[in-house]
Amino acid sequence: MNVMGIIFANDGELGDLTYKRTTASVPFGGRYRQIDFALSNLCNAGVRHIGVISRHSYQSLMNHIGSGEEWGLELGQGGLEFLTPYSMSTTDNYRGKLETLYSAMDFLEFGPNDDYVVMSGSAILSNMDINKLVSAHIASGKDLTVATKEGIADGVKRLDLALKLDESGAIADMVVDCAAPAEYLASMDMFVISKDVLMTQVKDCIAHNRYHMDRDLVLGGWQKGSVSVNVYQFGGIALYNETIEEYFRNSLALIGKDCRHDLFGGNHSVFTKVRDRVPSYYGENCAIQDCIVADGCMLDGNAKNSVLFRQVTIAQGAQVEDSVIMNDAVVGEGAELKCVILDKDVVIRPGAKLYGTPKNPIIIKRGEIV
Hints:
Distance between the termini: 54 Å
Number of helices: 9
Structural class: alpha/beta
Number of strands: 28
Largest sheet: 9 strands, mixed
Helix content: 10-25%
Radius of gyration: 21 Å
Strand content: 25-35%
């Protein structure tokens, strides 16, 4: 079977973390970007024709992916392509994923040998065997398959798409933009569909002023009977980084062995851009407890239950707890941080004190001095 992939890079907003970058290029886990998981899922399944659709703020993403070498891809036609539909669009207003797909129709048509399309967002991270997903879709005989996760719906979290199954495993109900109760399965924003069906449905939806993937193509097609839908239940860990609170909680969850091993040691390896650095330095009087520490760090102070990205500096006497510290950030002597997210290149002056909460972590934007 020949499969092509599409990744949506601007898939939601994460406050100040996406001020000048896409959701796909938000750093995660000490050395990765969120797009690394979707790209690795596709590449490890042998998918070599992949389009990354980005609406804005994509310079950071392009710098990260580069030529695609780390994922075994080749930048250019027939390999990895950056698709920026709003550089060609007749409107600057984003109206939905179907419109971006319509603007990128040439990319879909370019792969004449591709039979199926796997579409993935960038805000939900998993280590998934895409071959199993596609095989389940083909075996179902349905037009479209939605990858789902149990245990996410709780009646509080607002889900883009949620599905309820009856006792026979058939879809009994489907809702969009709803805080669905616990018996519903949450969409992982990952879909498999025949390329021909996708192109036909996109053109039809746009012609009828319908632009949203979940509401118009999936729910609308299912309700009208024009699109048959299959449900694939994923059994591994899926991290929903759709809000700042979720991003913060999931970042710290990686400190736990089970979560970390499932996400990075599951079906396959997760690849990222290689940036070789010297090993991290641990000072004589530092105390580092229950932390993820990337390479190149200079640690003379103390850190507990935190994620430290590459080349982080924690000066002597500094206290960092329950925090996410991104690349090249500097925490000055005697500073105290708790429930804080420092973006890249942030400098915390000596003696500064920042205290957030797990539900409302303090975010310091890239390059700021506090």
